[in-house]
What we know:
Blueprint: H1 12-19, H2 23-30, H3 39-52, H4 58-65, E1 70-75, H5 81-96, E2 100-105, H6 110-122, E3 127-130, H7 140-143, E4 148-150, E5 161-165, H8 167-180, E6 186-190, H9 200-211, E7 217-220, H10 226-237, E8 245-248, H11 251-263, E9 273-278, E10 291-294, H12 297-308, E11 317-320, E12 323-326, E13 336-337
Parallel strand pairs: 1-2, 1-3, 3-4, 4-5, 5-11, 6-7, 6-8, 8-9, 9-10
Antiparallel strand pairs: 10-12, 12-13
Helix pairs in contact: 1-2, 1-3, 5-12, 8-9, 10-11
Amino acid sequence: MTPDHRPASPTQADVARAAGVSTAVVSYVVNNGPRPVSSEARERVEAAIQALGYSPNASARALRSGASRLLGVCVPGVRNPYHAELVEHIAAAAEQAGFGTLLMTTDASARREDDLIAALIDRGVDGLVISPVKEPGSYDAFARRLPTALLCAAAPSPSHHTIGADMEAGTRQAVDHLIAHGHTDIALLMAPLDSWDLNGRVHGWRAALTQHDLPQTLVETTGWSRAAGYQAMRRLLDTPTPPTAVLAGSDLLALGALRALWERGMRTPQDIALVATDGTESVLMSTPRLTTLTQPFEAMARAAVDATTQPERQATQTLFPMQLLVGESCGCPALVTH
């Protein structure tokens, strides 16, 4: 059949005629409101929709209702398992709430992020879920236009929701755990951030070491990748007195550090203990099994979706506790959860 002779797609009017109801009733069934429909009429409409193969036009429905039932999701990228797993949970939570998602990746570029967020708003999304690359205040203008949730726990904001793991308390827990193993020289591997004073990893690490009057060795890497962790650990090992333990700011940094230790013929945890941060699936198959601070991805995603699909809600900060999933890399003999 040529394109000029394709049968026309069934319309709402076709469904109404087949079901013996008005087009308004069909609309109420398709959109689940705003007015109630009797169960008998609903059954006839649903049967007609199935028989005719009618598919509602989402764009047209969005124009009529003023809602697209879509959330815009903006993250630095999905090569990092942290963002990949977070996006999966956001999509699942959005689907449960009756929303779809549009994903944009920023490559950690502030300028690209601004352009992509503007594009998402132009496409008519109902809310924004952002893993930010800038200070929280940079998103106030977007948040004034539609509900916005930042997946970070830097600070509360009067204009948008901030959601994340309690990094400061979690990092203190991890450092205290290493101190309990007898370590007194615990380095922190961190990627560069726009604002160190807002980062809970650094705060928690410093607070724990200060409490025990221990030295602080902060190693800044070039990024959050395995390669960055690998190079940073090599630099640490080349110093006159390498630390006896390392806390990595992400799972990827820890995996790169683990590779550098293996190449130097050093044992983990016997020579240098190692703890990761995030708790993605990427650490579950490491040798030795990495001890890691786990972020509650599912709970964080659900909170972000709830915040952006309920526009009447006031902006809040939501912090979730982290768990220390203990493997062998810290010196513990078995896998347990603290």
